[in-house]
Structure prediction request, 527 residues.
Amino acid sequence: MTSDVVVVGGGPTGLMLAYELALAGARPIVLEQQTEPRTEPKANGLVGRIVQLLDYRGLLDRFAEGSRHVGPAPSFYFGAVPLNLSALEHNPLHLLVIPQPRLESLLAQSAVALGAEIRRGQRVVALSQDADGVTLETQVPGGNEMLRAAYVVGCDGAHSTVRKQAGIGFPGSTSSLVTRIGHVSLPASLVVPGTGELEVPGGPRLRLGWNYTERGKIGLMSFKPGVHVVTAAEDDQVPADANAAMTLGELRSSVHRILGTDLPMSDPLWLSRTVASSRLADRYREGRIMVAGDAAHLFPAGGSALNTGMLDAVNLGWKLAAQLNGTAPAGLLETYHEERHAVGRQVLAHTKAQAALMAIGEESAVLRDLFGEVLGLPQALEHIAGRLHGEDVRYGGGAPDDAAHPLLGRWAPDLALRTTQGPLRLAELLHAGRPVLLDLGGNGTLHDIVAEGWKDRVDVVAARSEQPDPPADALLIRPDGHVAWAAPARNSHVSPDSRDRQDSQEVLRQGLQSALTTWFGAPSKAL
Prediction:
């Protein structure tokens, strides 16, 4: 029996993809080599557009239960430069504080509830594809098994077996900087009341954030009482056995080399050693095999990995489901690489810039000071916050021409709406993960177009915007929240002459039909 889709890797990207596929009617199988859910707090939250996407799926309230913060981030870092985002009138950068184990647990529950299957303790060791599907060999307790799938998506991390077996290149570079991280306990007597800084015996006072010396840098954060995240980064040799588990002693030694004194740490909850890499897969798709998340890109800094990886999954999910159910137009799967590879390049560029700001040395210190001055300007600060969030993402390729609607390819804004059923937000229309035609101008012709050929795939909602000057008279919104087509807001663009009005209606009709066909396939019957 051939499965619809096998997702290799049960981290946030793989689980998000399983949820999106199941939401669209596919039946994915997730293969995860770990036998039990992870308990390591590898990441402490989500930052960027993915927070809003969870809201557009109706998941955010549940995911945010008990969170210390959800919504616009009051502060953040660009490299080692602090961003005071609370000073902005419009703060585009959204943050959800959530430990990664809880994030994975909630994603898994949500995906399974929709029909996804998660198989733990299964490691993919080989795969091959032909014209009809992909064959996987998995290592399970007691031996090996074979599995057949129509498509396979590798969400299996930096050392992705799927990527390697598919022959997808992963060009880039690896830094000489070794970073060691520990979630540890520190003596309460070292913590400075009110500031959270540390008075290190025989050493410098450490502030929250990054602290530099000539020998390296120490990062200090705390996400819950009694636990500090201590990060030590230095130019160093990775141990002979790079896969050996890191010890508290190794972290202590690194901190001592950097500070010149000891930092008393105990009771480690999690320890990790990483070497920063800057890599981007040369392609995200090879036939019936695709890659997403860390299997597709590695960023040297910036906390953008989960945002980018999970949004890879959201972009791919509805397209792959359409391919499986036979409604996908020609070339739809190719747009996954086209759109998300471009985003990967953008994120890699700004994380490389952040890595340069975080580097050890006098030149980088001067650069940080200058960059900090520039980010004191509200316009510059908002621009950088928007880059971190993903506001620069526009799907569809290239820059829009002068005639294109400014929302085309962009994220659909969360408009406050009024319908015959009462008030709602645009975000609520995307909970089902289906395309939506939102009619804000009472144009019945648009409804007729969808009814004639796409009503099985596209929902139509008539509403009035609570905003005095809505950005459009109608929006065709893709399942991933991006605008596929937009009708200009009703204004002076159209003269009162009846012929001009007829011409305008015909332009709208042709534009909407073209967008529907381009993204959601041919009409179910001839128009």
